[in-house]
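User: Hey, quick favor. My workstation is busy. Could you predict this chain's structure for me?
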Amino acid sequence: MKIAYLCNRYPAVSHSFVRREIAGVEAAGHEVVRFTVRAPATLVDGADRAEATKTTAILGQGMAALVLAGFAAAVRSPGAFLSSAMLVLRSGGARPKEMVRAVAYLLEAAWLRRRLERDGVDHLHVHFGTNPAMVARLARRLGGPPYSFTVHGPDEFDRPEALDLKGKVAEARLAVAISDFGRSQLMRWAAPRDWDRVKVVRCGVDAAFLGDRPPPASSAPRFAAVARLNGQKGLPVLIEAARLLKSRGRDFRLEIAGDGELRADLERQIADGGLSAHVQLLGSLDGAGVRVLLERSRAFVLPSFAEGLPVVIMEALALERPVIATAIAGTPELVDESCGWIVPAGSAVAVADAMEAAIDATDETIAAMGAAGRKRVAGAHDAGRNARTLIDAIASAPAC
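Assistant: No problem, here it is.
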């Protein structure tokens, strides 16, 4: 097949799993054409910069090109255009800003349909069930190829009715979840008659993480966290857990990679807690930097409030670092007591207790947990193998 990929903003620092999946699809012998709704922001990773040169931004074509494509679509197939326009009107709601956004989706879809036809694309696959899935749905209504989409969460599950997950699943050839939990949520919002088109294809890591064995975990009490500094990741809970560890007289170091709107708040919390010698905010790192951070740690910690199934957890486990994570969404499908600690979301005490347990564990115990985690990731989260699973699922899905 010749397959097109579409994301909202691609490549991005947090979307390495898409790049790995595309590489797996290409390795399986399929040609991939890459599209993004918006051009990527500043890219710190060389692999992302290389990927950006292969990716076409729809909004980068300019408004005139999009309007012209919309006009051509209306002339080419008035009935299909009317059907698409009615869907846009229903989804736009009463607020002018939302309506403008919905009309933009229609114009983007019209341009994309023409480009997919020109490129001879057989199938369109989308990551995330938000606006790019709507663009793919509209492109299909306008005469474009069948589409499938991967839902990650939590954003799609925060507002499933506003996003019309039910309608997107109904018109897709395949709806993909990245975990059994995610599949259950898609089934919750999809019509039962469409459940057979909802499949699980897990995100994964590649040979960079599953190739050579990593060095042993640090014997020193060093912890790593990698996350966007936003409300979903629960990082204030992590800083509070660090304060509790300090109050217990424990020596440790916590390094947090990532950036976001909570950075100033976290810096203030670190200073107020007298944690400057224990906690460091590193900012955004490229893939190589994240790997170095993980390799010099004893354990990885991520106290999220909302997730899909974080790929960085897979990366940490593949590098044989035990993981401290919260019992939410798909995370317990990967992390359990054999390879880490699962704690209640929102509990700084539980996070601190788990970090203390990681400090007190013998190096042999940490190594055994790391080996168990690596084995689990290799079995279920190999990006190349899972890309082939996705292609097989698309090929075997019923026509729509």
